[in-house]
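Ticket #4471: structure output looks truncated?

Reporter: J.K.
Steps to reproduce: submitted the chain below (244 residues) through the standard prediction queue, then opened the result file.
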Amino acid sequence: MLPILYQNSDLILYSYPLLMGLGWGIAYQIFFALLPKDVSWKKGQFLFWGIFLSAWIGAKLLFYFTYPANAPVDFVKELSFWMGGGFVFYGGFLGGLFFVGLFKAFDKKFNLNLLWPILPALAIGHGIGRLGCLLAGCCFGKPTDWFWGIYLHDHYRHPTQLIEALGLLAIGLYLLKSKAPRFKLISVYLVSYGILRLIVEALRGDEVRGLWGPLTPSQWISLLLISAGILIFIRKNKQLKPFN
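Returned output as attached by the reporter:
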C-alpha cells in the first residue's frame, strides 16, 4: 500500500487520483485514435467529455446510495464528497450509458462505429485506475492464505485490485487487436467484464458496499451486463444470417 507517492513541505502526490487521472488521460488518447475519420473533432470532444461528466456523477451517486445506512445524509451536499475519493465504477458506467443514450437520441447518425472507440478506452483506463486502488489500499480482498496474498490492513488478502486491473488490461488489448465485428466485441466486453467482476466481488473483503439480497449491488449489475452482452450477440448474429 502506497497512498502517497511523493511528499515534501510544498507538495503531496497521492497515488489514487494520479492513477485515476492517468487512466482517463490514456482513455482519451485511445478514444480519439480509434474515432472514425468522418466524425468531427468537436463531436468527439462533446461525446468524450459528456461521458466523463456523467460517469463522474453516476459513480458518486451509486457510491452514496450503496453506502451504509448510518452514513450522514448531508455529506452528499459537501464539495469534498464530489471532488474526493469514493467512486463506484458501475455507477459511472450507468451514468456514461445514460449520456450515450441522450447523445444517440439527438444524433441520428450515431452507430456502432461511434460507440466502438469507447470500450477499449474504457477497459484500459479502468484497469489503470484499479492500480490506483491497489496503491491506496481500497477495494481490498478477503483474508487468504493463498500464494498470491498481499499484505493489506493487517492481513494477507486476495489481490482483488490487481486481478481486476490485469483482467481489464487483457480485455482492452483484445478489443484493440481483434478483427471481429464490432457488435461481437461489444458483447465480448459486456460478458467478459461481467464475469471478471463477479469473481472479483466474491473475493472482496470491504463490506462498505453492503448486500442487495444474496449479492452485492455490483454482482447484480454484472449479471445484467452478461445478459445484455449475450442478447446483443444473439440478436445481431440472427440479423446477419442469410434466409434459407
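Triage note (M.O.): checked the attachment and the full C-alpha cell line is present. DSSP finds nine helices and four strands in the chain.
Status: closed, working as intended.
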